[in-house]
What does this fold into?
Amino acid sequence: MHFVIYCLDKPDHLQVRMDNRPAHVEYLKAHADKIVAAGPMLTDDGEDMTGSTLLMEFNDRAEAEDWAANDPYAKAGLFASVDIRAWKKVFPAD
It folds into this structure.
């Protein structure tokens, strides 16, 4: 089942993001088989990262929640909010 994990950074936490980015990237690499798409959200000028959006494949919500809670960014207290939603691909058709 697909899940969207939508994370917003706390204000003025760019340094927390940068300090924990290597561990976060390694976490993603270790779970690459679950990633459909992933990347940072940006300010309108594209200069700074403000959050993360991940489209992931998990067996159920509990697995998605566990994965999100163990992300190094989450453990470092980067996020002001994390929203996890089940998602269904409709277009483009496979």
